[in-house]
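Q: Could you predict the 3D structure of 4-hydroxythreonine-4-phosphate dehydrogenase?
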Amino acid sequence: MGITHPVILTCGEPAGIGPELAPKALASGVPFVFLGDPGHLPDATPWREVATPDETVPEGVLAVLRHDFPAPATPGRPDPRNAAAVVEVIARAVSLARSGAAGGICTLPINKEALKRGAGFAFPGHTEYLAHLAGDVPVVMMLASTTVEPPCRVVPVTIHIALRDVPGALTPGALEQAIRITRDALQRDFGIRAPRLAIAGLNPHAGENGVMGDEETRWMAPLLARLRAEGIDLAGPLPADTMFHAPARARYDVAICAYHDQALIPVKTLDFAGGVNVTLGLPFVRTSPDHGTAFDIAGKGIADAASVIAALRMAHEMAARR
Ligand SMILES: NC(=O)c1ccc[n+]([C@@H]2O[C@H](COP(=O)([O-])OP(=O)(O)OC[C@H]3O[C@@H](n4cnc5c(N)ncnc54)[C@H](O)[C@@H]3O)[C@@H](O)[C@H]2O)c1
Ligand SMILES: N[C@H](C(=O)O)[C@H](O)COP(=O)(O)O
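A: Sure. Here are the predicted structure tokens for 4-hydroxythreonine-4-phosphate dehydrogenase:
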């Protein structure tokens, strides 16, 4: 694996747990720079401003690329005046990664509602915004455990949409695209030479041969047969309820799921502390912890940094592999 530039850690929503996790993330051992307002960091944080991601700081000190916000942060209470700056920080990190000045980006959580209300943010999450910044490229959201064996990696084909809209959005084209992006990314970024993909059905019992839903028999099985003939290692469509226990996970490298909660419940149940969200298909590396802004505990100093540490390590490894 090669040498890489530091990862940019974006501040996310300053009223959430992001800023207090940044100094704790120094335990990752990964070279990274915090991009945000140093005034939002916990008072005792040892930090030093840097002009570029490569500028070094003493060990145990947080390197900060300064991005001043208009308002202070009040834990648990997002200030609409800060919403636009949260979005600017993400865009600035992407520019640094795309210019080659940073190895990749790791995003601390945003609060979708706060950004929508405060800045009219038009995207349901980072994933869709990053795809847009990259030129409206097709991307895939993957969440991956880092502390359980066999690993639990999941991809929701449909992401941030209402459950009632899932059957219409889960098209053969969307599933095929998710399969191809995931297969290519597992090879390139995770060093899995011949990825094994397991495809979840949409309906209970994967439709049980059409008696409780027919998406599986009508188009999923024929699509998978066509892709198998190309040499892609695919199992399914499988009943989703029985594909996440350990012996089942041992049979595949990633589960492609029909919708958000079908995919994310297993990984966040098995490894909430170590789960990492990674966007596949982007021209730059992006990871994130698997949790959100946690307003209920923000500012109390009790937030667990394990997921952001795992996310920084994964970004660093992916960047080094590229
Ligand atoms: N990558 C992201 O930007 C991202 C990811 C997930 C959720 N979100 C957003 O976060 C907001 C809140 O979402 P939510 O309430 O569903 O999920 P959440 O992950 O913020 O919180 C769920 C529960 O887990 C706890 N928790 C979360 N992270 C923790 C940590 N590091 N240590 C200890 N406990 C922790 C919280 O206190 C809460 O009880 C929403 O706006 C959501 O869209 C953003
Ligand atoms: N769907 C993700 C989750 O629940 O963990 C989360 O909202 C993050 O999405 P982005 O990475 O697109 O912000």
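Q: Anything worth pointing out?
A: The CA atoms of residues 8 and 84 lie 19 Å apart.
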